[in-house]
Amino acid sequence: MYGLMQSAARSLFVVGTDTGVGKTLVACALLHALAAQGKKVIGMKPVAAGLEDGHWRDSEALQAASNCSAPAALVAPYAFEAPVSPHIAAREQSQVIDLKVIFDAHQALLQHAERVVVEGAGGLMVPLGDGPASASSTGCSALTGLDLLLALQIPVVLVVGLRLGCLNHALLTQQVLQASGVPCLGWVANCVDPQMAQREANIASLVRWLQSPHLGTLTWQPGQPGQGGQPDPAALARELRLALLPEAWRA
Ligand SMILES: Nc1ncnc2c1ncn2[C@@H]1O[C@H](COP(=O)(O)OP(=O)(O)OP(=O)(O)O)[C@@H](O)[C@H]1O
Ligand SMILES: [Mg+2]
Questions:
Q1: Ligand 1 atom closest to Cα of 19?
Q2: Cβ(70) to ligand 1 under 6 A?
Q3: CA-to-CA distance for 215 and 59, rounded, in angstroms?
Q4: Which tens digit of pLDDT belongs to each residue from 134-174?
Q5: DSSP 3-state of 214
Q6: 122 CB less than 6 Å from ligand 1?
Q7: Which of 13, 21, 23, 25 has most ligand 1 atoms within 8 Å of its beta carbon, as the pocket-test mutant?
Q8: Beta bridge partners of 217
Q9: Structural domain includes residue 214
Q10: Does residue 50 fall inside a structural domain?
Q11: Dihedrals φ, ψ of 113, to 5°?
Q12: Is residue 69 within 8 Å of residue 63, measured between CB atoms?
C-alpha cells in the first residue's frame, strides 16, 4: 500500500543511476529549492560508507544545505569508515543494518522539519547486508537499497549522472521502481562528465523513455572555492523545476 503513509507527501528519496552520479549535489539542490519556498528542510543519509579525512562528506553537505538540524544518529544512523559496499563496510565493523532503526530515525526527522530529503547509497540495488529471500520484499537474497526505500514508503527522485552507460542504468532503475510499485516523482539530469559525447541526444532519449517529469538539468560546474572545491548546490537549485512535482507534495 505504497504512498499511504503521511510521510510520503513530505519526504523524497534521492536514487542515483550509480555511485558518484551527483545524488548529494541534487539532494542539496533540492533542499535549497525547497527552503527557498519557505519550507523547513533537512537532509538524511541513512547509510554512508567512506570517511574522507575525518569527514562524512555527504552528511556534512546535506547538513549545510538544510535549514534546521538534528542529532547525527537521526541524520546519518549508519556511517561506516571504509569506502566500499555498505554490506562489506558494515561487516568489517561487526554491524548489521537494521531498517527499523532507519525508519524510526526518518520518522523522528519529520518532527524536526516539514520536508526530508533522503540520499540513498550507491545505486538502487546496492547491497546493505544479507536478507533471507523470504524476508526481503523484493525477492532478492540481499537486503538492498530498494528494501530500505520500501521500508520508508516515500517517493523517489531519480538522478541520472550523464555519462556513457547512463541510459542503461536509468532504464534499469525505472524498471525496478515500477515493478516494485515505487512512485518516481521526477528525474534530474546531472552533467558529471563535461566531455560527454552526444549529451543533448542522451537527454532527449531520457525525456522520451523515462515516465516521470524531467525536473531539470544541472550543468557541469567547476568546484567553487567557497564550497570546498565542490559545485555550489544553491546556484544549481535554480535549474530545478519544483513546480513539476505533484501538488500534494509541494503544498
Ligand atoms: N554538475 C556537476 N558539476 C561538476 N561536478 C559534479 C557535478 N555533479 C557531481 N559532480 C562531482 O562528482 C562527484 C560525485 O558527486 P556526488 O558526490 O554528488 O555523487 P553521489 O552520487 O552523491 O556519490 P555517492 O554514491 O558517493 O554518494 C563529486 O566530486 C561532485 O563534486
Ligand atoms: Mg553522495
A1: 25
A2: no
A3: 23
A4: 556 677 889 999 999 999 999 999 999 999 999 999 999 99
A5: strand
A6: yes
A7: 25
A8: 189
A9: yes
A10: yes
A11: -140, 160
A12: yes
Q: What angle do CA 78, 35, 103 make, to 5 degrees?
A: 30
Q: Which three cell numbers stand for residue 230?
A: 565542490
Domain with 184, as residue range(s), is: 9-240
User: Separation of 243 CA from ligand 1 center, angstroms?
Assistant: 24
Q: Is residue 234 in some structural domain?
A: yes
- Determine whether 45 is an active site residue: yes
Residue 218 confidence (pLDDT): 97
- Contacts from 56-63 at CB under 8 Å and sequence distance 24+? 57/24, 58/24, 58/119, 61/24, 61/28, 61/230, 61/233, 62/24, 62/27, 62/28, 62/31, 62/117, 62/119
Beta bridge mates, 48: 79
Establish if 2 belongs to a structural domain: no
CATH code for position 72 = 3.40.50.300
Cβ atoms 98, 130 nearer than 8 A: no
Count CA within 13 A, CB hemisphere, residue 60: 11
Q: Which of 48, 60, 61 is nearest to 121 (CA)?
A: 48
- Residue 229, phi-psi category: left (phi > 0), alpha (psi -120 to 50), beta (remainder): left
Residue 25's Cβ-side half-sphere holds a number of Cα atoms within 13 Å equal to: 32
Q: Can you give the pLDDT at residue 1?
A: 44
pLDDT tens string 197-209: 999 999 999 999 9
Q: In the block, which residue shows the cell 564550497?
A: 227
- For residue 242, the one-letter residue type is L
- Per the prediction, the chain carries an average pLDDT of 93
Domain count, the chain: 1
